[in-house]
Predict the structure.
Amino acid sequence: MPSPSYAAFDEKDLGAQVLLSQYKLRTSGDAVTVRQAVARYMKEHGATALSVTRFATAVSEIARNAIVHAGGGEFSIYVDPRAKQLTVVCWDKGPGIEDVELALTDGYTSGGGLGRGLGGAKRLAKIFEIRTAIGGGTSVLMSVNL
Amino acid sequence: MPQSATANILTVLDTDFKGIIEEWLGTQVKEGVKRSDLFSDAESRNQNRELLKAFSKGVRDGVTGEDFDFDDNQWDDLRAVLADVSRERVNRGVTPTEMATFVLALKTPLFKRLEAMLDSDHGVLIRDVMLVTRLVDAFAIYTNEIFILEREQIIDRQRQEMLELSTPVVELWDRVLTLPLIGTLDSARAQEVMENLLQTILERQAEVVIMDITGVGTVDTQVAQHLLRAAAAVRLMGAECIISGISPMIAQTMVQLGIDVGTVSTRSSIRTALSDALLTVGYVIKKTEGQ
């Protein structure tokens, strides 16, 4: 886990999840790396092609958000082998999101994009949680069943 | 003793130059870093001779007191030979560990000869051994730097090649172009693709452009935005744009993301896109009779 911040998730949130790997997010190439790592793990553990495509796309959205809006962050992949669940946490030290409801609204963009990324990621993941604080960074937790 | 710090080392190098090369080769074999699969004996011996010759020259002229700086001109020869040897080894697939061990293997033959020569004078022996260690270590570190530099140049070259590879605009038929997209469409690539595409539309007087995304694994909002922008630009130039190769998975994901393709035509395969495109420019594909 990244160093404690009031916008981060901790062990309580992760329950029986075991850390699988961790990545630094700096360039758009890193977003591709984490997306591929998630997709590879899901494929190896029998997830359907549709579920892989959906979750990898969601991962791509939140990882790029951290890179574009917060100048980078950290990305961790956790698994719960018994519950057959994969969880990712994307954490950044950026400015935080002022109005999460607004940010999740389709069509709203602060960076010249389509304004579908965050809301789309929420719809694509089974579990989607976001914690953010002004000046305290943003963390997104997403889970999918394997 | 009123002699320079390198006197003994130079004596050792001068009196048994050939012997040191042979033993150096021997140590390389023992350490498993002499790649007889990649280099012939004669080649290895030749490389070692050149390196040792340049090393001796550096020791003779490039060490003042006990200090030396590999960047000084006195070490030019060694750096040049090293660059050649490293380049050749990188190209033949030698690992950095093998390369460093290959250089470090020079210590043993030098130590042994110094020990034999200075058997009675341990103070001087230790001083000389320390100097040889520093010299050979610096030699090995420098080798590694060159090695990394060489690799980086290879990676850079490959990246350039891939960028060029990834944006071929192909003329399928009169006034029909296709752009097979592969891999990831980041902003830099999207820009290059777009420029290349628009220029080709002008040159070939194209009326239909098929952008095929069969080889694009993930279509997220950024990729979608780049595609839609390219399609809009194509339309502004008076051509029709068809996006093909949208798999069922990508279609469902795009719907969930809430991406609206608007009036851009889309097809599931490049095959249907091609038949549509040919119709638009006035051709049909017909089966020959009697087949």
User: Anything to note?
Assistant: The domain at 170-280 of chain B is CATH 3.30.750.24 (Transcription Regulator spoIIAA). The beta strands of chain B are 63-64, 67-68, 170-173, 176-182, 208-215, 240-244, 265-267.
